[in-house]
Amino acid sequence: MLGGEQVRVNTRSFQNDMRNFNTKDDVLTLLIHLGYLGYDSETEEAFIPNKEIMGEFENAMSVGG
User: Fold this and answer.
1) Left, alpha or beta for 29 (phi > 0: left; psi -120 to 50: alpha)?
2) Which has the closest alpha carbon to 13: 3, 2, 23?
3) Which long-range CB contacts under 8 A does 39-44 form with residues at least 24 apart?
4) pTM given for the model
5) Which of 2, 9, 57, 58 has a 20 to 30 Å separation from 65 between CA atoms?
């Protein structure tokens, strides 16, 4: 996604639980709900919506390893 790609995500499996994450789809769905990721309902894909958030993801990756 940092390269501008969209990622397919299954939002229907999310249990609205911010403590337990079983799949990458759970994490991506939470980030969509929080507004950090955009979501295209027609293709069911998540994406980084703007340059500011892209910068935050890049920063998190460099700090978090």
Assistant:
1) alpha
2) 23
3) 39/9, 39/11, 40/6, 43/6, 43/8, 44/8, 44/9, 44/10, 44/11
4) 0.83
5) 9
d(CA 7, CA 46): 5
Both structure tokens of 3: 């390269």
Query: What does the pLDDT look like over 4-61, one tens digit per residue?
Result: 899 999 998 887 778 888 899 999 999 999 999 999 999 999 999 999 999 998 998 8
Q: What amino acid is encoded at 27 in this protein?
A: V
Separation between Cα atoms, residue 5 and residue 47, nearest integer Å: 7
What per-residue string of b and e applies to 52-63 under the rule 16 or more CB within 10 Å gives b?
A: eeeeeeeeeeee
For the sheet with 45-47, list strands across it.
Answer: 7-8, 45-47, 38-40
